[in-house]
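Me: I'm a chemist; would you kindly supply a protein sequence with its structure tokens?

Assistant:
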Amino acid sequence: MVPEYHLTIKDLPLESRPRERLVKLGAQALSTSELIALLLGTGSRTETALQLAQRLLAGNCRGWHGSGLRALQDASVEELSKIHGVGVAKAARIKAALELGRRLVAETRDSRPVIKSPQAAAALVMEEMRYLDREHFRVLLLSTKNHVIAIETDFVGSLNSSLVHPRELFRTCIRRSAAAIILIHNHPSGDPTPSQEDIQLTHRLCEGGALLGIDILDHLIIGDGIYVSMREKGII
């Protein structure tokens, strides 16, 4: 009897192997199918692990009606193991990896700070931004419950209303599904007193946020160990 031969990742050219690409470029450089191929390890007599991963994600499997990561998440080990080329061991590895991802998301969500005051927002950035020698305009993205999603740097340089584009700012907010935002920028002089340009920019961005349903909760100006909240000043 001719022994069964399984195509493996090693059958691919060196520069195309997911493991080598991960080591060289980082996990973020790999496609979803390449990451799943690393979990599978081997394919079958007729396809590599990468081809099997692509087939799993595309839903092109006999008796399998799902597609994408969501379908893999929802499937049981038994359902996955019945797919040609998978089996119980590979199915278990896939489910274990997806569960780790789910737990990481839950852990990250639980650990995100909640912004309840201008002081809390300023505290997130004060120690870094108070020493910057140029103006940095940043956006604190918040969820519906005011959990911090991210802090994005939108502009670096001499701040004026013509250089901070609402289109780019709100594109980031929409992409990250932010329900509300806090605008933040620093004054390298150390004096956080709002300039007329700061006030005009704030009003312009608030108008844009109102049109898109994105609430601008505040605009903080960071000085040397002190800050000004435009909300507290009645400017917003």
Remarks:
- Confidence is low (pLDDT under 50) at residues 1-5.
- The first strand starts at residue 136 and ends at 142.
- The longest helix spans residues 87-111.
